[in-house]
Amino acid sequence: xxxxxxxxxxxxxxxxxxxxxxxxxxxxxxxxxxxxxxxxxxxxxxxxxxxxxxxxxxxxxxxxxxxxxxxxxxxxxxxxxxxxxxxxxxxxxxxxxxxxxxxxxxxxxxxxxxxxxxxxxxxxxxxxxxxxxxxxxxxxxxxxxxxxxxxxxxxxxxxxxxxxxxxxxxxxxxxxxxxxxxxxxxxxxxxxxxxxxxxxxxxxxxxxxxxxxxxxxxxxxxxxxxxxxxxxxxxxxxxxxxxxxxxxxxxxxxxxxxxxxxxxxxxxxxxxxxxxxxxxxxxxxxxxxxxxxxxxxxxxxxxxxxxxxxxxxxxxxxxxxxxxxxxxxxxxxxxxxxxxxxxxxxxxxxxxxxxxxxxxxxxxxxxxxxxxxxxxxxxxxxxxxxxxxxxxxxxxxxxxxxxxxxxxxxxxxxxxxxxxxxxxxxxxxxxxxxxxxxxxxxxxxxxxxxxxxxxxxxxxxxxxxxxxxxxxxxxxxxxxxxxxxxxxxxxxxxxxxxxxxxxxxxxxxxxxxxxxxxxxxxxxxxxxxxxxxxxxxxxxxxxxxxxxxxxxxxxxxxxxxxxxxxxxxxxxxxxxxxxxxxxxxxxxxxxxxxxxxxxxxxxxxxxxxxxxxxxxxxxxxxxxxxxxxxxxxxxxxxxxxxxxxxxxxxxxxxxxxxxxxxxxxxxxxxxxxxxxxxxxxxxxxxxxxxxxxxxxxxxxxxxxxxxxxxxxxxxxxxxxxxxxxxxxxxxxxxxxxxxxxxxxxxxxxxxxxxxxxx
Length: 758
What we know:
By secondary structure, the protein is mainly beta. It folds into six domains: 1-45, no CATH class; 142-196, no CATH class; 217-407, no CATH class; 421-550, no CATH class; 555-715, no CATH class; 725-753, no CATH class. The protein has eight helices and 51 strands. It has a seven-stranded antiparallel sheet with strand order 39-45-42-43-44-41-40, with no helix packed on it. A hairpin with a 5-residue loop joins strand 6 and strand 7. The longest helix is centred in the first third of the chain and has 21 residues, at 2-22. The model is unreliable at 294-331, 335-358, 648-666 and 684-703 (pLDDT under 50).
């Protein structure tokens, strides 16, 4: 009896051992001699490894897994209890479920072994990725040249990282960490960063008797709040403070100047720029306007600083000493009055250099023109932290804050001239009757007719054109935008943009006109922005350049608020009668299930890379003399932070409930621009109940105006790309980065015509 028990026990254990060995030690054997494999093992004897899973780059159907002769649908799993597919799998394309087990019928990129871009080595459990894919689960689409990615001249980054490097944009789609790309070093290009870029120059065939080049002109301000502060280095035994300029060349590479002493002369600032290595800023081509000392609440003397804060004498001749027109109403700088650069910026303190505020601004402003660096340049920056984490420029006055700003005032560098159509035979001067009414004058009857023909349509509809000239008058929704260039000038001046429309109700410009029964037979070309002739010569003649492109209002229900010299524009709802403020003011083109309704209120939405400008149509006196064309680098929404009352300090009773600005439900919409604003728009009081269709309305104080976003649609027919590699007059040798000039052109950028250069 004992021996029989022993025998059966031995037999039982031998069977278990044989079953265990049959499962290769990676599973357990059932009473039916079947293996139940451990995790990440498979096959009937548990001898095969499971590989890493990742989001499938491409979904694939698996075919007739159960040999039924037909393919079952995506919601009918036919394989269960598989370690390769632990939640089951289907024969057709998969259908996902969320964490609450809700079916997602339009799903894709289902988790697959080796991300469906490789084969699994069952012996090792490692993925053998197809060409162009890498990672333990083949989860990445490799950077070009992998494993020697980006040719040693760039950094391999994910799509999410590349988006963030582009002005902080956000990318959160399924392949945010799966699709890879190269961020090339400055001077290199191509998908794998293996190609060199060449030097940029101005196309010599672009220049003629009237064409001019828009070179970058930037204003650099080092300012401080308080009463007559001076700048120090912040040490206990105070020395002179210093700052530096970070300059970006045409390739986007940044260069930091040596420290510049606070209050330095223009010559010192230019010397610091020209001392940058590699001839980044060629000597003799950089010009600086004499240092402007901006102090306290001065008397309005005309200098560079006063041009922005108190320049009523020069910019607005209809102002008087007893009732000056103060540009400073629209030049609020939203910064904090906090001690010595410490603490986060606060949006609750308005700092202005005007007599109607308790806080003044003092400091230095430099206007620098970069004639040796043609084309569109990234806006330079002012660096204060030249000694680690310690600022090297500190105000000497207690509770004073140092403020640095960089901006351009209508003189932005460009690669493309979007206003390349010269209106031959037409010159104008600038007329003014009051601070709200500017217009083109000095036109003969013939010149007026020619100008109408040059302007052409202002909108996208040719069926509503008028008169024999086949043109539009221009309107609140679609005004005309032109470029004014002084007739007697040099080719480096560049010109200024102006927005105009034709007012048939008045004849402010009566030059060359005849009357019928005492009334003028034609109207007036009125200017919306407060255009000021360069050097304030009101008698200057200007040539006119037009475009077949279109300037269009984005929305009549959205308003823009922005600080002076800021790259952030806040977009809010400016209406208070449309469905109880249901529209949140967002003018971006992004649309989803929750905001599709908004296009009821948007005429032309704004996308990243779009060009736009900011204008107040109701009150032209609130517009800057010179306008910029901005590029939208980023358009986004951030969570609600504060009400309009808190943000802009308005004391208007009931403002939040009647205007819905910065609505609690919708958050805050912002546009980040490539250039800092040269003006500011605040909502310091009640907004007129007008619809914005009455130009020239003077009934509301100037700081109550509503600024709108106008989108510019360039036209190919009116665009000339005149700054490019090798000046468009040669071929860039990508292996060396050197220009091979066409016959008749020379210089390292092929920008010089030379009849003997053959």
